[in-house]
Predict the structure.
Amino acid sequence: MAPGIGARSPWQAATIAAIVPRTGRVASFLLTPERPFAFRAGQHVDVRLTAPDGYQAQRSYSIANAPEDAAAVELAIERLEDGEVSPYFHDVAAVGDRIELRGPIGGHFVWTADDGGPLVLVGGGSGVVPLMSMLRHRARAASRVPALLLLSARTWDEVIFRDELLALHDRRDGFELVLALTREPARRAADFGRRIDRPMAAAILARLPEPARSAFVCGANPFVAAATEGLLAAGVPAAIVRTERYGQ
Amino acid sequence: METRGFTGRRPPPDLGKRVPPGQSVTRDFPVLSAGPTPTVQTESWTFTLKVGPKPVARWTWAEFNALPQTETTRDIHCVTTWSKLDTPWRGVTIDDLLAAAGIAAPTPFALAHSYDGYSTNVPTADLVGGKAMVALAYDGAPIAPDHGGPARLLVPHLYFWKSAKWINGLQFTEQDTAGFWELRGYHMYGDPWREQRYTDDP
């Protein structure tokens, strides 16, 4: 049975093995579960924190690493000022701490190299996380499936995984990175210095060698709404567009 | 397992017993769906009641809006851990829908179907007896497309993925048949008070 579809995913302890700052507001937490599990790129885990009186809070976080590197689970967590769980990770959690997680979860927003392409990924801010898992998987699987990531961020320095994405782009193996910066001018020739809109969606789709076969859009709901509208207006069939949205 | 240094934020005591385990109260109305928001025009909207494969009743938007409507204010609980309290809805209860079709609840289970191809399963006992409706209005206004308008199922005592957006039909089935998320790792029943989030939850 494929991971995450009907598979058992009981709560288990995981140890924070490393904390890696990604941007000013985002850090990656590498968690080593007691029982490592197989997952597919795009899936998420639930994390549960327990206070001394037994009160619990839980949240879902997408997995950022490739399934090929399943010994640790990388969660890239943005610090939300009014949050309950993300400030704990940023202000309290330290290497060696143990937290509970369960997973993998989700059987829809997933991609494996065998699914083929072209693959269109559109991310807003921390919405890049499950898309990063797909791109890392694509690289680890030595897939040549044409893939394109349109990633929106406020500034160059707020692009999560920026240097790794630029390096993946420079492999020239069929993956292209396009950044849409909303509060700064574009820095690369391929990039845009504005919010995602219909002409931008049409322009990036025209860079694909053939029509997209799968599209994955992840971010805050207004972003996902604008991005999917752009894709549909540019002729992408609704049936191939998968979305993952979060509030805030 | 206690988490070192975590104290957490609790709902006010008077609300605490309305919030199921693992949930936190939001004042927003987050939007979650598996694909693009479909454009559903009321001019061409229809709702079909089926028993097995056989259609037994069908309404246009105007006909459906002429059915008896009920108002209800309920707490709703999303599997992604937000709960929203006191949400006001208006719509046609499944009891009134069955009465309008001139049938009694014909089978033990049902599947809700939607314009975007979504489906979800609910036992018939959880739809009748005033427990569920096809909602046509939220907070006194037509339901916004992102929230499932023009019409969505409302089964507020189950996790909210059971309250199918953009609904266009209800199909009664003999067997409990998994829908979209139930085929993708989510629970067949989805009781928030028992935290039935995923397939393997008891």
The radius of gyration of chain A is 18 Å. Chain A touches chain B through 48 residues (CB under 8 Å). Residues 113-246 of chain A form a domain with the Rossmann fold fold (CATH 3.40.50.80).
